[in-house]
Structure formats: structure tokens, C-alpha cells
TrEMBL record:
It comes from Jeotgalibacillus campisalis. This is N-acetyltransferase domain-containing protein.
């Protein structure tokens, strides 16, 4: 499930979510592009928690002379032949994040519902982005040769950043890949690490009590 940001209320929700992650991980908060298209990834209905927003992503029409470009100032995508020849069908990806409690549970795959919607609405040929190394590895696992590192890693605030180009039109034309990406179902259990830590703590406490009472009985 997702929402396209259209109202002031939705924009405020997007900003609160994204800027929270910026503060937490010391990310750069790039300006909100006037022509950007923003999406919020929502929790599935079966997960009942106060905050319904899992993550965010922003798509911006690529413009190499845009002084506020989220990617061109860090890596010269404009020098790549594919970008030069198809500039009007290139989009930047920015403000791309997933809440840490939902990492490694399959929720990242829900972003492909958003990609599918954006592709159908705007027909991009390539996406370009500067992403954290961990995110690039995830894209590589899911997309294989259609997610390509196009330059050396860059220094980031907490981890290295990877300039990446996604061959989104090739993905769109690969019906079996699209079907697989859109059919992935995440684990419905939220924040498992916290629950596991609580249960393990209780389990250890109960075992300690059981051993104490068993020793008393043997006495």
C-alpha cells in the first residue's frame, strides 16, 4: 500500500517521516523539489500500530543543470552515454528510506508497487540515485544486472554512498521479473527484534526461577 503526496497534510507527514530519518542517521536533507513526485509506503492493514508510514521515496525529473539536483552535484551522471541520449526520460530518486524495524523482513519489496505506479504514469527509461551501500546491495539482489554501480563509492556521513543507475524500462519489459517483484509478500510481524529480546529475557528469567525451585525440592 502507498499514497502519492498530493495534499498539504500528506506533505507534512512525508516531511516528518523523512526528516526524522535524516536526524537519526545524519543524512543530508535535500530541498523538496517543486516538480518532485513523492510517495509514502504504508503499513499493511493487518499491522495495527500508531504510525502507518513505513518509508518514503521522491522522484524528480533529471536536469543536470539544476543547482538543487540531488545526484548531479555528487556524481556526473550527465557524462554517461545512456543519460546523454535519453535525458528527457531519466528521473532522480531521492528521499528513499525504509524504517529500520522493517529491514530484512521483505518490506523493501513493497517499494516495487510504487515503482510500478510511477513507471505507468511517467514512462521513465532510467532511474539515477546516490544510495547507501546497504541499499545498493538490496537493489542488486532484487534487480541483478538492471541495477548498476556507475562510479566509485562516495564518502557519506555514516557509510559509503554508491552512484547507481536502474534500467527501469528493461525491468518493465521483463514480465516475469515484474511479476516476481510485485508478488513478494513480507513477513506480517512488525518490530521482531524488540519482541524477540523481550521474550528471550522472560524465558531466561523463567528458567532461572525454575532451576531455583528445583534445587529447593531436591534439598
Amino acid at each position: 500500500m502507498f499514497q502519492v503526496v498530493k495534499t498539504q497534510k500528506q506533505q507534512k507527514q512525508f516531511e516528518e517521516t523523512w526528516e526524522y530519518f535524516c536526524r537519526k542517521y545524519k543524512w543530508v536533507n535535500d530541498p523538496y523539489a517543486e516538480n518532485g513526485i513523492r510517495y509514502m509506503l504504508l503499513r499493511p492493514k493487518e499491522i495495527k500500530e500508531k504510525n502507518s508510514i513505513l518509508g518514503t521515496i521522491e522522484f524528480i525529473p533529471y536536469d543536470p543543470i539544476n543547482v538543487n539536483s540531488t545526484v548531479e552535484g555528487r556524481f556526473k551522471f550527465s557524462e554517461l552515454i545512456e543519460i546523454k541520449e535519453n535525458q528527457d526520460r531519466v528521473w532522480e530518486i531521492d528521499k528513499f528510506c525504509l524504517h529500520k524495524d522493517f529491514h530484512r523482513l521483505g518490506y523493501f519489496s513493497l517499494f516495487f508497487q510504487i515503482f510500478d505506479h510511477h513507471v505507468k504514469e511517467h514512462n521513465p527509461k532510467y532511474y539515477v540515485a546516490i544510495v547507501e551501500k546497504k541499499l545498493y546491495r538490496m537493489l542488486k539482489i532484487l534487480l541483478g544486472p538492471m541495477a548498476v554501480q556507475v562510479g566509485d563509492p562516495l564518502d557519506g556521513p555514516t557509510t559509503s554512498l554508491v552512484p547507481v543507475m536502474i534500467y527501469i524500462e528493461d525491468i518493465k519489459n521483463n514480465t516475469s521479473l515484474v511479476s516476481r517483484l510485485l508478488s513478494q509478500i513480507p513477513d506480517p510481524q512488525p518490530t521482531p527484534k524488540k519482541k524477540l529480546a523481550f521474550n528471550v529475557f522472560n524465558g531466561k528469567k523463567l528458567m532461572k526461577m525454575f532451576r531455583f525451585h528445583l534445587a529447593k525440592i531436591k534439598e
